[in-house]
């Protein structure tokens, strides 16, 4: 009995005795200890898992809150976008109306600017009234300087009638009888009025106009103005001839703008009736900027 343990269990009916060997006894002890550790370990594990679940739940709540905020912002942005789209649509309608009104003004004032210019430029050109148009035509070369009898040589590359070699012709040769009166095509200061040997132009007049324009009159028979004189549009400045490198009486006429040679033909044909055509024909000139300068000068003169 040394290797066994006697266990007595007493009840109302009596008592009973059980004998348990030492091996079973040790097993029960170890198993009990194992259960205790298992319980304690399980408690800590469950506590850790609970805390982890709580942490994840809190993180999930924060994410849900962030998602709700993002959804709200998205909703607000959609609303703002819809408002902006309505505003853009409204402003586009207004812009279309402005364009229509500009077109009406252009038709009334005979202004038909190039298609590539913007609304602001169109507005600047459309605001030119009849008085302003006359002022511009008084200061920028336009019209024929002599009675028109035809053109003997156009602007551009040609075979020189005397030198017989290909050269660029920077002006237009207007047919004329000897001693045909020549008139200034815009208000100007006489920059040069003398015989010019090196150019071949013979007796030459150069008029310096406002806003960077110049006109040249070559092969004259007689000059009636002097350097430094002020001339108005339509004033007599000389008579056609055959001086210099020329093969017959005619007028060599040039139009220049800030150093650039321009085709004189659109300027020769330019007048109050076809005022719009110059904007299409001559694209080297920044008309919007030029017209602003003219308006500014006119305002100064009116003060």
In the CATH hierarchy, what is the superfamily of the largest domain? Glucose Permease (Domain IIA)
Rg on CA atoms, Å: 51 Å
Average pLDDT: 83
Shape: rod-shaped
- Note the beta-strand portion: 25-35%
Helical content (DSSP H or I, runs of 4+)? 40-55%
Low-confidence stretches: none
What do we call the CATH topology of the largest domain? Glucose Permease (Domain IIA)
CATH secondary-structure class of the largest domain = Mainly Beta
Distance between the termini: 138 Å
For the record, the CATH architecture of the largest domain stands as Distorted Sandwich
Number of strands: 14
Can you describe what's shown?
- The protein is α+β, with helices and mostly antiparallel strands.
- The chain folds into two domains: 4-68; 130-280 and 293-302, Glucose Permease (Domain IIA), CATH 2.70.70.10.
- It has six helices and 14 strands.
- It has helices at residues 22-109, 119-126, 130-139, 264-268, 277-281, 287-302, and strands spanning 4-11, 14-21, 151-153, 156-159, 166-169, 172-175, 181-183, 188-196, 202-209, 213-223, 230-231, 236-240, 250-257, 260-262.
- Strands 3, 6, 7, 8, 9, 10, 11, 12, 13 and 14 form a ten-stranded antiparallel beta sheet that branches.
- Strand 9 and strand 10 (213-223) form a beta hairpin.
- Helix 1 packs parallel to helix 2.
- It starts with a strand and ends with a helix.
- The mean pLDDT is 83.
Keywords:
alpha+beta, Glucose Permease (Domain IIA), 2 domains, ten-stranded antiparallel β-sheet, two-stranded antiparallel ribbon, 6 helices, 44% helix
